[in-house]
UniProtKB/TrEMBL annotation, chain A:
Residues 20-79 form the IBH1-like N-terminal domain. GO terms for biological process: regulation of DNA-templated transcription. This is IBH1-like N-terminal domain-containing protein. It holds the Pfam family IBH1_N. Keywords: Transcription, Transcription regulation. InterPro entries: HLH_DNA-bd_sf, IBH1-like, IBH1_N. GO terms for molecular function: protein dimerization activity. SUPFAM superfamilies: HLH, helix-loop-helix DNA-binding domain (SSF47459). Belongs to the bHLH protein family.
Automatic annotation (TrEMBL), chain B:
The keyword Transport does not apply. The lineage of its organism: Eukaryota, Viridiplantae, Streptophyta, Embryophyta, Tracheophyta. GO terms for cellular component: nucleus. It comes from the Eukaryota. Belongs to the bHLH protein family. It comes from Spirodela intermedia (Intermediate duckweed). This is BHLH domain-containing protein. Keywords: Nucleus, Transcription, Transcription regulation.
Amino acid sequence: MHREALAGNPNPSRHLQALHFLGALARINKLRARKSPPSRRATALGGRRITRAAYAAMAVAAGPRRAWSRAILLGLRRNSIAKPFLIKKRILKPHRELRDVGSRAEELRRLLPGARRMEFGSLLDETLNYIHHLTAQVGIMQKIADSLCK
Amino acid sequence: MDSSQKDKGDDRLSYHGSDIHGDWRFSSPQMSFFGPPPVTEGDQMCYSSSSSAMAAPFGRRLWETAANSQSPVLPPPALDMPWNPPAAMPDGGGALFSRNGAGIFLHGLSQFPADPPFVERASRPSSFNGFAAGGMGSPSSGPRVVISGAHSQRSNPTSGRAPPKNDDRHDHELGAGGHQEENPSSGTTAGDPSSAGLLPKKRKRGNQEVVLEPEQTTGDAQRSVEAPKENHGNKMVDERKNSSSEHGKDSAEPPKEDYVHVRARRGQATNSHSLAERVRREKISERMKFLQDLVPGCSKVTGKAVMLDEIINYVQSLQRQVEFLSMKLATVNPHLDFNIEGLFLKEILQSHSVPMSSIGFPPQIAPPQLHPGQSSLVQPGIPRTGNPSDALRRAVNAQLAAVTTYGESANQIPSAWAEELHNIQVGAQDFHGSHLKAER
């Protein structure tokens, strides 16, 4: 299953992810380049757009097989993603009481998009896949940021 | 009667082809498909949640009634064979239900990729995808282990049919039919009768497995609560099966089985439920091991709770990292040269040269799918300038199309998905565009 998560060939899916993300970035750039306001709010807005683009790239690379990717894409479609925006709230309230495995599983379900009523086994499966794609996305973004800041 | 039952079964199966998944899902909390043994043969399959009084004779009777005809007529191999909830099957359902259950069972099982730990314990792993896909909307790759013997193999000699993996259901049914036929004649002859004798147990266990699966889906607590209730009836069946199989009475031991065949280890409870729980626990522990490898710094952590804590922390930190990096990219973005994006592509896709070589950044490539959407979106808001960026975008899209065509995603991304992929891009653009208008 781990091999499944890696899809046996991590490169193609990562390349797909990178391509999608770069395409989205290019598009965002095009949208931004016209006005180019250096305000802080614009930065936050652009940042949110980029996070959405990042999650979209992840979801697209993961394919429709995963519940989290489907949830992300559906949320994107309806223009109402819960996941990226919930992150801030989660940061604000880091306090969580995890009594047992059940509550931790609940926490995981909250973290993963589209993993609400999933059983524990498949929850772990989704988490594996999600972490895999998340790390890929972080790597991509870090590379881009590094080459940009050079 | 049996033929009529079978016809009913077929009809029902075909009828329930589409919706039962949801039904199964909803009925899963009921969990106890095997209620008290029905007095009449197949007519009263009482799947009340009281359950648990199952005994092997019940199962036998089930099989006898259902499979007397030993008809090779099996339900269609539709993978979406419904899992008829007990409520939906008022009567005549004993055999039908078991067949359905077995069908669903087998269907799901056939798609299970092999997990090494399971392979150790099972002759052949298989998946429970039908269940998963239908009932829970979980990804089709979600493996579900089913503890059961392989009817198909056993029934093959009896029914004379070779079960391919995807026809597990048929084999299951056939096995049910076959061994039912032989049940009455269950004699002392070596191969078939013993296998036939075991088949009902297997079948029963399989069904119980099916029962257990929904149990598991509803959550640990519920499962743990429900499990003891249903353990009673299955005990004898499984014990008998396990004992007989362990004693080697089963001469027709199938070398390959279509779904995970978990054997009760020595000194362990042979209850089918406990077996299923054991399989589930092993599945979970295997996944925890994988997660341990993935999450850095968790090699020394033992125990699910702490491990889950680490996983949660890791996921949260990754999401925060994405957020932070996106903010960083947003500040840096104005400096993004259009040419640099091409450099990004080359740099990031260094290792994988196929898409690059295939596309080679032809500036005039216009991906047909994306262009209309993009043009519709981009043109109203932004005049098209900057040839390099356009070329880059087009190249990116072309590369994406190329990658999708021969990446591993090609297999999993049907055309509709690829279209949605583009729609998402368009949608994201929409999003950004609308935000742009809204905020400015």
